[in-house]
Design goal:
The protein is mostly helical. It has helices at residues 2-30, 35-56, 65-89, 95-102, 105-116, 123-140, 151-174, 181-202, 215-242, 245-248, 251-267, 273-290.
């Protein structure tokens, strides 16, 4: 029980901090690499590495037809559409602003749970979502965070990605999947990487050899594969089986805060007083949702 609590805490730290940094890394990579090509390489490499790790640790690879189908469905909602299209939209929207759009996820999850499972809203959940949305509004209300070119289509597609990711969270929390989180995540990564590779071909993207990538892109892709893919996504799948989906979705509130501070620190982006206040409101919203009683 004690080890389980430690793993849950470490997993939350992973999806909060690591995923908060991936907006910056994706933005760096997508400025040089085509979006679907970028995502496919990231997921294929991460998936292969995870399968190798599972083999070394002698995890069972036995999978039923239903589990394989569920893995493919989860891969679509999370990685193919939820992440692949989101990376594409980053071509038109700033990374920090993209993270802010993603912070609407807990609201989507709560409403999906209400619609699918008829779960009533608890007072703490309502307070948390309201605070989170208000904090997001404070952040979005800053014009300097928004890039104008293609902004509307970028924002719209990002919102559909958030809806996709939110439904995927609800789906995985009750789906029959392989017991090994390494195997489950590895299968999802390989399915997504293969599908996105065909999408890249379909959109006639120009494939660029890793030899010709800039040093910044090589570093960004390495971090996306190892930390954003293997560590954080495995932690995410683990949490979906251990705690409620709406608690896991609170990463969408913390990620924008991490993204903004990383942009300020590494890219010398402006960090206003309003951003700091908004971040504090968002984190307060996380507190209310994570401390609610699970029925």
């Amino acid at each position: 029980m004690k080890n389980s609590k430690v793993l849950i805490i470490l997993s939350f730290i992973s999806i909060y901090i690591i995923w908060g940094s991936t907006y910056l890394f994706n933005k760096v990579a997508v400025t040089e690499l085509p979006p679907f090509f970028l995502a496919s390489i990231r997921f294929l490499v991460a998936g292969i590495l995870m399968i190798i790790m599972a083999l070394i640790l002698k995890h069972s690879f036995t999978i039923s037809k239903k589990q394989m189908l569920n893995s493919a469905i989860a891969s679509f909602f999370f990685l193919i559409y939820g992440n692949g299209v989101f990376v594409w939209a980053l071509k038109f929207v700033d990374s920090g602003f993209g993270a802010l759009i993603a912070s609407t996820q807990p609201l989507f999850v709560l409403f999906l749970l209400r619609f699918i499972d008829r779960k009533p809203f608890q007072k703490k959940s309502i307070v948390g979502v309201v605070l989170g949305m208000f904090g997001m509004y404070l952040l979005v209300n800053q014009k300097e965070l928004v890039s104008s070119e293609g902004r509307l289509i970028g924002v719209f597609m990002m919102l559909t990605c958030v809806l996709s990711w939110s439904y995927g969270s609800v789906f995985v929390s009750k789906a029959d999947l392989p017991k090994s989180f390494l195997v489950t995540t590895g299968y999802q990564m390989l399915v997504a990487g293969t599908f996105l590779l065909f999408m890249s071909l379909g959109f006639n993207e120009t494939w660029i050899s890793p030899v010709n990538w800039s040093l910044e892109v090589k570093i960004a892709m390495s971090l996306l594969v190892v930390f954003g893919g293997i560590i954080a996504f495995t932690a995410f799948n683990y949490l979906l089986k251990k705690v409620s989906p709406e608690k896991v979705s609170t990463s969408a509130y913390v990620n924008p805060v991490i993204a903004l501070f990383m942009g300020w620190y590494f890219l010398n982006e402006k960090l206003s007083v309003q951003s700091i206040i908004a971040s504090a409101v968002l984190l307060t919203g996380v507190y209310f949702i994570t401390t609610r009683k699970r029925k």
